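Bench notes, bay 3.
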Amino acid sequence: MSLVRVCSAAANDYTESLCCYAERDSDVALQFETEFESVLAQISDAPDRQPGA
């Protein structure tokens, strides 16, 4: 499993989006967080499969 680096701008976008979802619906925020973590795991498991790798 490879380390996935997220640039600060993307990390800020993620945090802002997560907070926005959490204010509206905590279940949606949890789904968003779960999906984000899933995508990071997929990238980590097969980094050459992603565009720009």
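Next record in the batch:
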Amino acid sequence: MDRELEALKRISNQKTTFQLMMESNEPFRNLMETNKSFKNTVEGIERNKEYLSKHPDQKQAVKEMNDFLKNKKTKTSDNLKDFEEFKRITAETLNTKKNVSPVNKPMAERKPMNTSKDMELINAVLEAEGLPPIDIQSKPQREASKEVKNVSTSTSSAGYLVPQGLEDMIIAAMKDNSTIMSLAHLIEVKGKSTRVPVDTGDVSSSAGWLSEESNLSEFSPVVGTVNLVPAKMGTLTLVSEELYEDSSFNLAEYLESSAGTYLSSIAEQEFINGTTSGLPTGVIGASAFGITSSVTASFNGSDLVKLYSSVKQKYRKNASWIVSEKAMETILTLQGAEKYFTPATAPGHPDMLIGKPVYVSEAMADPATGEACILFGDFKYYKVGYKQIKVQALTERYADNGQVGYTTTTYVDGNLAVAEAIKHMVAL
């Protein structure tokens, strides 16, 4: 009810979408003139001004407006067909950002339609009619989808640089599906490679105490670098021509989900286990050895405490655990597990292990003799470099199948800057 009232207030002194479309959109106008019953339903939008002027009690005004619309309501199949056509024309008009102000006015005087405000009113009326709302994408989503669809007009063999909004969406999806990316330090690489400076020395090597009036001694902090040379990775997403032509289909959101999930999956494997030259260096191989468990092909609570203590305090401050599904199962079934494990206290918050966040990664090995099965430390010391994401449309290759292909590519690298910042446990 509050949403309807706000919508009514906002348009009380301005033209509604219905008025503007009746003035400038000939197909819409013809539809309304031809189908009188549905026209009467939609024209109920205009009656809000009359009610608001007659009734100081606005809630009563809205109630009477809804009563009027319900009395006008018809349930014939023709009416439902009209409604679908109304949805289609409205969505098409709004998504193409056409100026729907009166056409007889000079261009400079035309006022663009306020999509979000007017759509709230239309949907409030449709809701009162018992009809589903019109789902119009937000401007960022609409622009992202439009730009991605326009990839097909690009002739660049190198692909199309996606709009910043979509790139952020894909990176966010990769972070959501990659434990390492969600914890690591992400760095956008502009050229072929980048060097990341890192202070690898102990605190005592770069500072010291001074006596009164003494000269400052020269201290030499140990500064190393991590060289990130991103390697190319990509995924292919196929979209049916029917979906591609559907103006309500959010292509940007679909690519975000599909490309983000698959790219993060293959990246996670390398971030955890990578040993191949030219690809990300795995954190297991780059991290320092912590302990060997005291249980064959498994571990106990005491082993967890020992691994925790093996990491220096300065790295424990922002430390996290990464385990496999099987290792998490072992943790939950430990005798006295409540001493170590605390379940998440709220949605979106991580479970805690010895007071530090614990995450599950499918790339981690299950506890087995000789396998590194648990990681603990500050994963911000793992540096992930990536280059801007590109999308390229393959409009002809899959035409026989009635599909449009989209390749999504980027370049990614990863390496651990300080080995002792993260340590691993090897099962006995």
